[in-house]
């Protein structure tokens, strides 16, 4: 039986989805609690195809992905507000240069349909580099960078890419933070509070 993991994949980029594993909406906690959740995130985020061998994922991988997530949080949030520290940018660049991401090749499945498969088992440095390269690409693309938003939800730390028409999205998720804001507004209105 598969263990369900609570991951967000609606932030618009892999690097932002990794940041969301630290906890999104208020009361959400650490989601990369061990090797199995990290393996599930790697597959769900599309860094490795379904069924890829992830036997090597261990506590060391978890620690390294958490460290990259913390670095991404500092860099991306600082860039949303203005400018990231040079030392953090150097660390991000070093992570992006770390190793080649795993090569994916097209193979025929038992049903004859094409599916992705890794040419070799993935290594941690290559997967970290893929996420770091996604962040570098995001931050160096003026159009994409201009669509970065901090969620307006009360206490929500998530950053997302606003791809809405008119670029007026306010929340990381209309169903979570947006709904909380609407409920709070309704309660204030019914209580006579402006």
Query: In what range is the share of β-strand residues?
Result: 5-15%
Distance N to C terminus: 49 Å
Query: What is the residue-averaged pLDDT?
Result: 85
Order of helices and strands: HHHHEEHHEEH
Structural class: mainly alpha
Total of helices: 7
Spatial order of strands in the largest sheet: 1-2
Broad shape:
globular
How many β-strand runs?
Answer: 4
Question: If you compute it from the alpha carbons, what radius of gyration comes out, rounded to the nearest whole angstrom?
Answer: 19 Å
Low-confidence stretches: none
For the report, how would you describe the main beta sheet? 2 strands, antiparallel
Helix percentage:
40-55%
Overview of the molecule:
The protein has a domain at 14-146. It starts with 13 loop residues before the first helix and ends with a helix. It has helices spanning 14-19, 35-44, 59-81, 86-96, 124-140, 142-145, 174-191, and strands spanning 104-108, 114-118, 148-150, 159-161. The chain is mainly alpha-helical. The strands form two sheets. It has a two-stranded antiparallel ribbon. The chain has a two-stranded antiparallel sheet with strand order 3-4.
Which keywords apply here?
194 residues; mainly alpha; two-stranded antiparallel ribbon; two-stranded antiparallel sheet; globular
Kindly summarize this structure in a few lines.
The protein has 194 residues and is mainly alpha-helical.
């Amino acid at each position: 039986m598969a263990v369900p993991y609570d991951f967000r994949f609606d932030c618009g980029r892999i690097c932002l989805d990794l940041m969301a594993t630290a906890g999104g909406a208020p009361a959400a906690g650490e989601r990369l609690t061990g090797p199995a959740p990290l393996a599930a995130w790697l597959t769900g985020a599309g860094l490795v195809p379904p069924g890829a061998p992830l036997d090597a994922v261990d506590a060391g991988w978890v620690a390294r992905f958490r460290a990259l997530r913390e670095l991404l949080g500092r860099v991306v949030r600082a860039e949303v507000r203005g400018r990231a520290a040079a030392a953090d940018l150097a660390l991000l660049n070093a992570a992006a240069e770390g190793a080649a991401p795993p090569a994916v090749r097209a193979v025929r499945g038992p049903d004859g349909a094409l599916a992705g498969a890794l040419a070799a088992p993935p290594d941690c440095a290559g997967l970290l580099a893929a996420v770091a390269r996604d962040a570098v690409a995001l931050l160096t693309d003026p159009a994409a960078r201009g669509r970065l938003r901090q969620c307006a939800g009360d206490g929500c730390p998530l950053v997302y890419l606003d791809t809405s028409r008119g670029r007026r999205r306010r929340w990381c998720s209309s169903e979570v933070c947006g709904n909380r804001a609407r409920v709070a507004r309704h309660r204030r209105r019914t209580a006579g509070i402006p």
